[in-house]
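WARN no homologs supplied; continuing
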Amino acid sequence: MKKILFLSVVMFSVSVSAEVFRIEFDSDMNSLSKRDLRKRVWKLERAVAQLQEKVFELSYSKPKRVKTKKKHTCYVSAFGKTFTASERTETAAKADVLAKCSKDSHAMHCKDITCGK
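OK structure emitted
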């Protein structure tokens, strides 16, 4: 019960404070006093609590989806076939439609590209 209470207090104190604890490696642990070791353990426990809180937050939150809207659509007709492409920029849409048209017929027949939003 004491451990649960302690963890609750630590988690609460971590969530209240905005300070992020950075733990640095100390190669000479034998030279530290008991007080310094206790202080280090306290910092380590707070850092672990912060990490746990962040892990729980990330595991229970919904992933944010970035919506990419394709705004520009271009098309070209060659030999009775129409090729289309939609991209975020008009230049990218033109390049895509030209590549599609050139793949099926010669590029010289794919010059009249029309674009719109």
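Residues 1-15+36-65 form one domain.
OK
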